[in-house]
Design goal:
alpha/beta, Elongation Factor Tu (Ef-tu), domain 3, about 350 residues, SH3 type barrels, Rossmann fold, 17 strands, 3 domains, 5-stranded parallel β-sheet, about 30% strand, 6-stranded antiparallel β-barrel, globular
Amino acid sequence: MAERIVVGMSGGVDSSVAALLLKRQGYEVVGLFMKNWEDDDDDEYCSTRQDLVDVAAVADVLGIELEAVNFAAEYRERVFAEFLSEYSAGRTPNPDVLCNAEIKFKAFLDHALAMGARRIATGHYAGVRERDGRFELVRAADRAKDQTYFLHRLTQAQLARVTFPLAELRKAEVRAIAREAGLPVHAKKDSTGICFIGERPFREFLNRYLARKPGPIRTPEGRVIGEHIGLAFYTIGQRKGIGLGGMRGAGGEPWYVAAKDLAANALVVVQGHDHPLLLSRRVVARDLAWIAGAPPDAARAYTARTRYRQADAPCRIAALAADAMTVDFDAPQRAVTPGQSLVLYADERCLGGGVIQ
């Protein structure tokens, strides 16, 4: 009998083509649609209903079985609660990283195994390879779409059970395959932003769950120049929406968020895109996760990213312990943000990383 693989299908072109490719390879493919958010699934910004319609249409074209499962309770407990906690503490978390580790490759994987599958598949742009009995997470062929940054907390046990059919494809090829196969989602726009927020204004969403706690906006010298609505509503490097648009200081340059003084409930702002307070050569990360199950060799050189949309930057590990890592970059990194992920690479291999402090 053909091996059963359960494919996480979101209603987008990537996961649809992943299912198509596996079907062509002779696997018994079962589609699984995950509902992870239901607080406002009738809202104009929530696309869950339309996504399920799209998944069903694709499954019909492919001739595969489809199941819908509700992980909203697990998502709220494992991902959203942490998301709010981090924002309340003045940090800027990346819930997509936690969603992959806790929902897509834990709750989903457990459910798929209970369905009799040996492996799961998703439409992520990433690759897995086995070497000497260990599994490695490697970059996708389409470097512009590579999503290993979001997958850096996966374990050996998880990687042993996953396949990424799009590893060697570029986005344009994926759309062409979908179009030629007559998949109804071949031209569907890619989803952007955090899964449970969708296209809605971010501050409007946070207002529902976090109380406003106004305080002073000040310069590094201590001069108060305005009032913020709550530290949780700002992020390092932010320029728009600070509330200082009409205020011009020296040179008339725009203001940027440089720091959050939690003790004083003060937002620290500076002028100039490359102000020294926005640049960091040394970054400390905690809550470390290593794909190999053990930390890398601290003596060799690596590259790293402090955010997803960023080019790899050469760096070295200055200090490494079980619960913390200090990385020194060759060149200053701009707007390094507490709560985001510091992800380490050795050439095409993603090694893991931690949460920026």
